[in-house]
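Reagents: none. Just compute today. PepSY domain-containing protein.
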Amino acid sequence: MRNAWFQVHKWLGLILAILIIPLSVTGAALVWDEALDHALNPGRYATSGVQEIAPARYVAAARAVLAPDERIVSLTLPDEDGGPVVITASKPGTRHALQGPPARTTVWLDPPSARVLDHGNSGTGLIRTLHMLHGTMLIPGIGRQVVGWIGVAMLLSSVSGLWLWWPTVGRWVRGLRWRRHRNTDTNLHHVLGFWIALPLFVLSLTGAWISFPKFFGGGPNTMGMRPNAPRPVPLAQPKLSVDAVVAAAQAAKLPGAVGKVEWPTDRKPVWKVSFNGTQTSVGVAEATGLAKVNPARPEDTARLMRRIHDGTGMGLGWQIVIFLGGLLPAILAVTGIIMWWRARGWKAELRAKQAARA
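Predicted 3D structure written out:
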């Protein structure tokens, strides 16, 4: 049984090493995608203060740099930590070259002045490339499924690796010692493999869940939409102004400041206003201007799986675990290849000696 697990572990690692390394490294980098964006694009966050002005001023400033056929999707106001105002817009019917949501234009604005700090397409840039590489391996059409099967393979690798790590003689704590072998790379493989086995199992499971939501969750996909179904299109000329919508939502007197305003769509002509620090939102009907408080919905399993996988709202401790869970598999892949190559060498020498004796 041990030899069978060894063969499974070895060939999974060798065959998938070239895929596991970029998948793991990009996952580690994306844990800190906001900090990475700050470092790569400091101009987007060079605000002159935290005082905010009327939301309509931001919309007007953003429209000056948007294409005529682009429709505003949302407006996000900074939280208590400061930062820019962010407006996203999209062109109906446009998509990324690879599978994914429609391509969007993002506009960053200075809160006190509505001055445009930067704007760009969501389908470009290093961070977007990292997201697409991690989510689809840049493979059109079937990329998400390929990543999902890599997650299944890493599940098996975690289980088989833990089985092989378990000492065959003595208590299990003997496996925690450093010098189990004369080669440093082998010792590194054993030690790192043990400590990352459980986190890697969780990350692989959640990654497979995201890739195959219908299999795990019983639904069509994580967002509740049919595959290839038309996506909602924001209204080109809403009847209500964004200032009127915000005023109607604030009249509900929910705790917290307004955090995000989402535009009505052809499928659901209702504005959605979210408040910082609460899951409760306010819907404002486009036709009547009437506001209705939407109680917070319980988090579904699909959303929980995604948060566990990317660390959103999970605390610094788990984010560090995810970061290491991205780096260590790459190290394990490299050390595993070294171990396999060295084993080929001494097996060849052994066969040569046996042939000489014969």
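The longest strand covers residues 71-76.
Action item: order primers for follow-up constructs.
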